[in-house]
């Protein structure tokens, strides 16, 4: 089999997505997600200018060799743009291989290790009462694990809380919006949120919380310690993680499990975190971390240190990444949990798929390949629109981590 063509489909059905479609001389095609929230066109141009010309004529079954060609062969390594572009190619090739062999991708990764993939979804509210209602609603839908975020009193536009009447969506069209942050107010508030949730909801539901890179290690240690009585499934991204050894300080003080890495793009971003057992869940996902090929190596490395996967799955990860993550989570042994933030109905229409949710678990379906497609005619009706993630400032105006 030979790759004959590859093209990009850039569409905005309620939010932007960049999709790579690789075609072959046998009529089989594969799809890969190349979406990097707020920097979409950088990946698109990396692919169209520098990657696609190198793919034509290659055998799409040579997934490892093509991965190495694009990674080592570029000389310039890593970074979210490069690794998202490589991921798009890699995932499209796994899709092609599954279709050509008439089997779902999870079978190419070792077969089924479990019946279903445990997922968590997002609950949020302007205050504790609303957040509690929101968690309850998701439990009624069948979720066994729910991430809870609530507005911090005295901090307008807190992270993870939607604008009134809208679903929560991290990116917004136009130039970057601004939000506010106060570590002091947040640290006083967050334990109260979970005290209430745990006492109302009982011991069984898995509660998760995203700190979104906003604390220093010692502040995160204080939070983790304060949250211990409410036994969270995890405390996510407590600090920016460029300084991997910083997590030692958190670990010294708390047994609250830690998940990190949605912004990572290589196993090297998590190397010390994993081998020093400073985290419990690795969040680097397929689209931003070099595809299924690199995620498999990362997960296997993590398995040796009792670290499980907990992949990022917000709305900026397209249904193609969601499908890939579900095949992956079905197959690998050290799967932990998968994030599931619902796409809009329009996004789901543009990307018809076979995956489904039931009683807290998702399954990828048994269609050959990834089991996800793109309706190109519909996609063309929703052209790209510039959009950004917000920035955050402290109450005195200092720019801080969003
Ligand atoms: C968040 C995301 O889902 C999460 O855990 O951290 O909402 C994240 O902010 C966005 O996906 C960024 O693109
Ligand atoms: Mg997060």
TrEMBL record:
Coiled coil: none annotated. Pfam families: MR_MLE_C (PF13378), MR_MLE_N (PF02746). Keywords: Lyase. The keyword Secreted does not apply. GO terms for molecular function: mannonate dehydratase activity. Its EC number is 4.2.1.8. The keyword Lyase applies. SMART domains: MR_MLE. Residues 128-257 form the Mandelate racemase/muconate lactonizing enzyme C-terminal domain. NCBIfam families: ManoateDhtManD, PRK15072.1. This is D-mannonate dehydratase ManD. It comes from Granulicella cerasi. The lineage of its organism: Bacteria, Pseudomonadati, Acidobacteriota, Terriglobia, Terriglobales.
